Amino acid sequence: MLHTGKIAPLPEGKQATTKTDSKEEIKGQRTVRKVKQKMKKEIFKKLPDYAHVERLYKEEKLYDRLLRFVLNSPGLYALQEYEKVLKKEYPEQILDKYKDEVNKMAMHTSDRKHYVYLVSLLRKMQQMKGGIKIVEQIDAEWKVKYKNRPAMMDELRKL
């Protein structure tokens, strides 16, 4: 019998007042949970690469696996897709991923629109726990490293 969250009625004449009854019930619930977890692991292993497991991770609230997926994904797409779910539990890791990505994006000379977009990402980072300090570091580094990019410097002043 699968545990549904509801307490099943006891057979007639049996009372659940003893400590052993509740200990056995708790052990049974733990066993059911362990079996479910093993089944989930097996199912995830058997899924093909194109199955979008990240959606299943989110649905099943397997946030540690979702975070690993996001951190290993190139670019910002996965990060922005699952940021809302992950940033409360993993703000440092999310900020580190943003930092890496904006630094990669800043390496290439571009137009003002690109710099506006970079600054908007920095503003987004500032809103996260611990983000202000990281953005200040990035700002200071870029002002030294990219001082010959007037459009970038102009947009950073608006930060």
Would you write up a description of this structure?
The protein has 159 residues and is mainly alpha-helical. The chain folds into two domains: 23-60; 76-159. The chain has helices at 19-46, 53-59, 63-72, 77-86, 91-106, 112-126, 131-145, 150-157. Helix 6 (112-126) packs antiparallel against helix 7 and helix 6 (112-126) runs parallel beside helix 8 (150-157). It starts with 18 loop residues before the first helix and ends with a helix.
List the helices and strands and how they pair.
Blueprint: H1 19-46, H2 53-59, H3 63-72, H4 77-86, H5 91-106, H6 112-126, H7 131-145, H8 150-157
Let me know the average pLDDT: 84
Number of domain units: 2
Helix content: 55-70%
The largest β sheet comes out as: none
Spell out the key features of this protein.
mainly alpha, 8 helices, 159 residues, elongated
Summarize the structure.
The chain has 159 residues and is mainly alpha-helical. It is built from eight helices and no strands.
